[in-house]
């Protein structure tokens, strides 16, 4: 008896251990080797829920890790509607990758404990690309300097004359350099000399400065410093397929998917026709962005309403602002901007969102009333806002948000001072002591979004005897999800998605008398049209979420039939019956 009790305790203990999921650290950004080790550990700890694979290799030889999450006991990922999440499309935006990883950890740790997490993985699939630019992130962690997506020069040519940003004083941060110049455009603020403010148009005779990024001067002639175009300007978000417009931009790449990381990701998405929605995690601004991006882009009204509802829920959970990318643009709105939306939504019809995590302006108590974040970043704001940023650094960040100016003997420029706002660590990224708190509500929204996808089910599969060895079979299929089976109207307009099909499998000795073995049932509505019964137009009557397939078969009693309903974005379902046996 005692031996049996010990065996039971060991079995239960082993079962409990199997549920343990290694924690995600929030006190640092994982280096690539650490990330790889953690992902492999998660895959080993919850093999029934997650599959880890590489979808490609970067030019520096790093595998691009991709996770598929679902409860495989309830079916494979490809047979379920899916949500796609990515992080670190932009290398310096480390918190975006952390947000993607936090969501993975939430799902793995919560399955079997949290009802909504369990329901998501039992009925849907989630795909996560946690670090789209492994090379770029690694470079920014090593060098502490801004890189849009990857540290590959583009166009591929020698550096042009001008400042090449780099950490010249060896402190692991690339900030600013300043030096005195009687004709400089900057002066020290009267109340806080750390802060440099523009010299007045009519001002002369003061102590003036020049300011530039910390770095080395390419092509320095001892007197002039050129304003070199960004040396590593590639933007993976602009390298997706889609309408690139007529404007020429250095950020786009040579052609769509010219960059191997983007090509690998596009191929991975293209192979997974079950994806309904997509979120890419970025920083900063405290925003949830939706299409349109450009003035020429139009959304079907039903898609506009769905976007408003889903993004609005995200804003409610995170405290962020839901806004279209186009409405965010405060200048140059006529110029066409390529974006991942141009392929993911405009072409494939996936409900795609950009989350801009973290708002340093709000953290510092800066109001954007009567302006926009975009205008603020272009410098159209009062100097009092910058004093608030300094106080925020001093009082909330222990001074870490602003590097004190210190003298340095620059090998080209001579005596300079290096310091200024640390834009990489405290603008583009969340302070580590706030990081988990910042990304956790976003994971709640991703869970909500995943559960909003369509879900094809079989309501009933029944048989009625209509003659000697003749039976009428009826299958009722329905969509139990909030979104329609097609997801977006754009997916229908682009002919990117087919309808629901139902296939009847005949056992040996059975014959189909009437009806096609495979029947097409079209699209099934979700609940998106059910908004209000206080008006005539706020709801939809009837059962647009349901469809029927009928057959007449010749078969003896006790013959067993199966029927399978399929939809590439809404998943699949199967039902079985035995003739002459009443189903419960």
Give the SSE layout.
Blueprint (H helix, E strand, L loop, with lengths): L1 H17 L13 H14 L4 E8 L5 E7 L12 E6 L6 H17 L4 H9 L1 E5 L4 H10 L18 E4 L10 E5 L5 E3 L7 E3 L9 E6 L1 E4 L41 H12 L3 E9 L3 E4 L10 H18 L2 E4 H4 L12 H4 L6 E7 L2 H4 L9 H5 L5 H14 L5 E9 L3 E8 L1 H4 L5 H20 L4 E12 L2 E10 L9 H5 L6 E6 L5 E4 L3 E5 L23 E9 L5 E8 L3 E8 L6
Parallel strand pairs: 3-4, 3-11, 11-14, 12-13
Antiparallel strand pairs: 1-2, 2-4, 5-10, 6-9, 6-16, 7-8, 7-9, 12-14, 15-16, 17-18, 18-22, 19-21, 19-23, 20-22, 23-24
Helix pairs in contact: 3-14, 7-14
Describe this protein's structure.
- The chain has an 8-stranded mixed β-sheet. Strands 8-7-9-6-16-15 form a 6-stranded antiparallel β-sheet.
- The chain has helices at 2-18, 32-45, 94-110, 115-123, 134-143, 260-271, 301-318, 325-328, 341-344, 360-363, 373-377, 383-396, 423-426, 432-451, 489-493; strands spanning 50-57, 63-69, 82-87, 125-129, 162-165, 176-180, 186-188, 196-198, 208-213, 215-218, 275-283, 287-290, 321-324, 351-357, 402-410, 414-421, 456-467, 470-479, 500-505, 511-514, 518-522, 546-554, 560-567, 571-578.
- Helix 3 packs across helix 14.
- With 584 residues, the chain is an alpha+beta fold.
- The protein is elongated.
